[in-house]
TrEMBL record:
This is Monooxygenase. InterPro entries: Acyl-CoA_DH_C, Acyl-CoA_Oxase/DH_mid-dom_sf, AcylCo_DH-like_C, AcylCoA_DH/ox_N, AcylCoA_DH/ox_N_sf, AcylCoA_DH/oxidase_NM_dom_sf. Residues 40-131 form the Acyl-CoA dehydrogenase/oxidase N-terminal domain. GO terms for biological process: L-leucine catabolic process. GO terms for molecular function: 3-methylbutanoyl-CoA dehydrogenase activity; flavin adenine dinucleotide binding; monooxygenase activity.
Amino acid sequence: MTNVDIASERTALQNRWAEVARPETAEEWLARAEEVSDILAVDALERDRANVAPHAEVQLLKDAGLVTVLGPKAHGGAELPWHVVNKIVRIIARGDGSIGQLLGYHYVWAWAVRLVGTEAQIEAVEEQYTSGNLFFGGAVNPRDADLRITEDGDELVFNGSKTFSTGGRVADLTVLEGVLEGTETHVFAIVSTDQPGIVFPGNWDNLGQRLTESGGVEIRDVRVDWAGAAGFVDRVFQPLVYNTLNVPALQAVFNNFYLGIAEGALRTAASYTREHTRAWPYGGKGKKRGTEEFYVLEGYGELASKLWADAALIDAVDLEISEILHDARENLTERRRGEIAVRVAAAKLRIIEDGLEAATKVFELTGARATSNSVGLDIYWRNLRTHSLHDPIAYKKHEIGRFELLNEIPEPSWYA
């Protein structure tokens, strides 16, 4: 199939839902995600190598209705629970890890107004993005200096830069975060991405997750009405423990696209082995195919069992955090917040270690010819290795250890 054929096929497929009723049940939405994932998988490797901003891929997500599944039904959303939404992220990541990450971050930023906003802000933002089928990005990398915020009458003026800004040029809306000058007050706000004061240098050219638009951003005199400062009433922030769920929620999303990438690696490798891997000629008589080799069967059995176990843990944790995210915000205690953060960290630890093992060991199970660039098995390791460096896994182990040994919960931070 030529690149022209692939492009033509994708165009036909991505329009297939124009005259089709939207899914209604969770199962139907997961099936829709499988369709999208299959479309993305067709040319994921070619698009990764081209490293072009994924406008078409985001439009595909929009056409499929996946962008608004968290949004209110009254405005065209599906009001799916988080444990189902995370499965959608996982499914998309099987076909394309970069697009799985983009969609997962979008969901968290779409929920950000519920994490910190007032009731009026929640209603306004959810109506805006759901009815408009809008896609979120975020300029909230905490390792950089905070954006500087100054007051100008009834407006806040944001300035500064971030070295990472996932979503970048493909986002309709961007979440900003900064500190009000002369104070320690942090302010979140949602703004339109398409404005002169938001400038993307287009400098994301990394080893993996190449289509996540995670490069830098310059924020130049971006103005927000005080009324748009999330969670502020009369210019005073109204704190809740629930505000700090942004990190556990985002890290739970990580777990799912990590798992999706690892599952994609195993699925692609297994397909290659069934079709191409040869038996080792010195391993005994009678073996004609790689699928008859003991070490190949053993290897796939070991990797599959680990990923199944990881999926079971991630599913259980997702059910827990989903219940918390959909509960009344006032109900969350510091203790419960800390417990779920530890559970998310434990799942992250397992899927990173097992996922990287899977993405590496598949080469042993497919054979030397599978290292060909035309096969592209390297994309899974590159994607998982790149994003799993987001924050040191050693600190997750430390948090889990302190909880297990000393019954201490982690203090809320930008990474815990």
